[in-house]
Amino acid sequence: METSYRIRPRDRAVEMIECFILQNHLPAHARLPSERDMCDMWGISRTTLRFAIQRLICEGKLYSKVGSGTFVSAPKLLCNLQDLKSFSSFAREAGYRLETRVVRTQVLECTKQLSQKLHLPLGHKLFVLCRLRILEKEPLVIETSHLDAEKYPLLLEQDFSRASLYEVLEKEYGLQFVRGQEKVGLTYATAEEADLLRVKEQTPVFFLRSVVLSSEGTPIEYVKSVVRSDRIRYASILKQKA
Amino acid sequence: METSYRIRPRDRAVEMIECFILQNHLPAHARLPSERDMCDMWGISRTTLRFAIQRLICEGKLYSKVGSGTFVSAPKLLCNLQDLKSFSSFAREAGYRLETRVVRTQVLECTKQLSQKLHLPLGHKLFVLCRLRILEKEPLVIETSHLDAEKYPLLLEQDFSRASLYEVLEKEYGLQFVRGQEKVGLTYATAEEADLLRVKEQTPVFFLRSVVLSSEGTPIEYVKSVVRSDRIRYASILKQKA
DNA sequence: CAGTGGTCTAGACCACTTG
DNA sequence: AAGTGGTCTAGACCACTGG
């Protein structure tokens, strides 16, 4: 029995693009030829070519800017699920340029869930800091931190677009940190998250939750992170899929 | 300032389809009009209509069969991350018809990771059972169970397309179960997984790992599950995204 | 301004199922 | 055989960018 599947032009186009990048040694952020040029080069319609480009964008291998062009992405970042660390330290170790934008700061009353995580009574004042982490000009993570506002009142006066949260806690309060357990899940980007991360609404995104402990074991910070899934890949040693 | 965005036909088409389903009270698995008919009804091109359909398929609201038609999906299933349970019990309680297909059974030697989870020595014989769970005719989960093959040798002789794993363990070995902690992550479907789950390769899927304990606290089973993300939604009470 | 990606159209052929 | 979804084409207009 001869199972000779016809190769679809769109699949061929995906290979042509990947091949083009390799053969021309295009580095990250290099520009591809225009869509119309690639159509002419390979004798396919723009619809078909765009389908291939969309697939590669979904896989995190390309990105595009309107009026400008289509570009090669930087390789996917790899985080290890066994040995999870904060994005800032992860990025620093990997030698990336990390920018931070403060999305929002506010003071909230401690809810039941948060009181369990932070060992604080219900209604206790919490300082909430929501930051957008931008790696190599690309927004990657929304980190929302929750801390004891009554114990660390100086937090409310800081400008976290300049200062690092951990630096402030270390300098002002002499705290040292140990990261507690983290959990990873999957959700879908809300309108606000999609806007901040520059992805489409309803895109699947990672949803991480973790507690940061002081070196004495006291819970200091509860963090929720929403992470783009096209730029990050979480690996797990346990994952030995057949 | 008047921000009057032009409504794109594709977005309008998404609304038209959703509206059509509501106004005609279409139940789950009802057939929509053919693509060509909907194009005529709403005066749009097939490309645009198909874009809208693809979006609704991604969101889990529609599914389609070649040569047959496009259909309304059953509503998304909701699993609670705080109170996670096995799919079989989850499905049974919700009143769904659950089928099981045995993908593979094998005997493997215990690896380092598995030995930690199951408290067994390295190289110990493990019975591996990989099953496809099909809910209402729709493949939903691939569950891969790992158990002590030396302690439960009768497992190797069973026909798990007919018998339930838990029933066998309970009847043959008098075991009672308590579910341990589960972890949820996100990965991308491999070719085999995509084929079994009937989704496209590289689709984002949930990846769950959990340990099932006996009522005495002994680890009995280690399960890895790959779950379709378009049909299941994991909720978390903790998730209070701003 | 010219060029780019983003969107849309009308029409065609294919493999598949049987509404 | 007729109808369906899946795929592909050629060509058009738009908003945005500064290759």
How many DSSP H or I helices of chain A? 7
Give the helix/strand class of chain A. alpha+beta
Sheet with most strands of chain A = 6 strands, antiparallel
Work out the oligomeric state of the chains in this entry. Answer: homodimer
Percentage of residues in DSSP E strands of chain A: 25-35%
Query: How many β strands of chain A by DSSP?
Result: 10
Termini gap of chain A:
27 Å
User: Which pair of chains forms the biggest interface, and how many residues does each contribute?
Assistant: A-B, 33 and 33 residues
Q: Helices and strands of chain A, in N-to-C order?
A: HHHEEEHEHEEHEHEEE
Mean pLDDT of chain A: 84
Q: What best-fitting shape of chain A do the alpha-carbon axes yield?
A: elongated
Radius of gyration of chain A: 22 Å
Considering DSSP H and I runs of 4 or more, what fraction of the residues of chain A is helical? 25-40%
What are the segments of chain A in which pLDDT stays under 50 over at least 5 consecutive residues?
237-242
Q: What topology, given as strand order, has the largest sheet of chain A? A: 4-5-6-9-8-7
Care to give the gist of this entry?
Two copies of one chain form a homodimer. Chain A is α+β, with helices and mostly antiparallel strands.
